Amino acid sequence: MCAYKRRKRNLYSPGSDGFPISRSKIDLFFECPRCFYLDRRLGYGRPSMPGWSLNSAVDELLKHEFDVYRERKEPHPLMAEYGIEAVPYQHAELPIWRDDVYRYVGASVYDDATGLNIRGIVDDVWINPAGELLIVDYKSTSTRSEISLEDKYKQGYKRQMEIYQWIFRKLGYTVNSTGYFVFANGNKDNPMFDARLEFAMTILAHDGDDAWVGEIVKSIKQVLEADTLPDSGEDCEHCAYRKLIGAEESGY
User: Fold this and answer.
1) Residues 202, 143: Cα–Cα separation, whole Å
2) Which of 8, 74, 76, 208 holds its CA 20 to 30 A away from the CA of 246?
3) pTM of the full predicted structure?
C-alpha cells in the first residue's frame, strides 16, 4: 500500500507569525506557486525522492577538509589556486548554519515585513580581509562538459546563493556580493574503477543580486494568506501531469 498521505503538521494558518520558509520552499514557489500552496497550506507535498547519498558524502568530506584550514586560519590550497583572498570563517553558529546536527534549520532570520522565518542551510562561509562574508556552496557532478553556471537548471544554483546572501545580510553581517561554488567533478574516464572515484575540483564565482528575494517573500506571504489556489508555474511538470491524468480519469 502506498504510504503517501496528507501532512497534518507544519501547515500555514492565515494570520500566524513566525512560520518557517526554507530556501528550498522559496525555490518551489519560484517554480510553481500552486505546488507551493498545496504543500505549505494544504499538506500535499510533491512525491518524495531518494536522497543523493554520494553527493552528501562529498559535501561532508569537503566540510571536514575545509575545517582543517579553518582551524589553521589559513586559505585552502584550492582558494589560493583561484586567487581568492579569504579564509574559511570561524563562528560559534557555523554548525547550526551548516546543519551539522541535522535539525533542518540552518541560518534563520525573522522577516519583519511578512512575519515569516526565512531559513537556509549553507555548506560553508569564508571571510575576506575586509571582514566581508563570502557564501559558499558545494556541488557534486560527473560530466565531460565544461563546468559552468549557464545551464538552465543552474539558474536555481544562483537563486540559492542569493537567498543565502539575503539571509546573512538580514542577520546583520556584511556580505560580499560574490559567492563561490566549489564543484567536485567525478572522473568517469579512468580505465579501472579500483574502488576509487577521483574528482577534479573547480571553483566558480557568482556575483549575486538579492534584490528579488524580499519581494518574492512578500508574494509568498500573500499566497499563504489566500484561500484559493494560485496559478501553476508555466513549466511545472507536476501540475501538467495532474491535469493530464485528471482529464483521463474523468472519462472513466
Assistant:
1) 13
2) 8
3) 0.93
Amino acid at 184: A
Q: Which of 23, 177, 14, 27 is nearest to 108 (CA)?
A: 23
Q: In Å, what is the CA distance from 206 to each residue of 59, 135, 203, 242? A: 19, 10, 10, 36
| Helix H or strand E encompassing 204 | strand 199-207
CATH number corresponding to 48-226: 3.90.320
Residues 102-147 have pLDDT tens digits of 778 899 999 999 999 999 999 999 999 999 999 999 999 988 888 9
Strand ranges of the sheet holding 199-207, from the earlier edge strand across to the other edge: 87-88, 124-127, 133-141, 178-186, 199-207
**Domain ranges (residues) in the chain:** 48-226
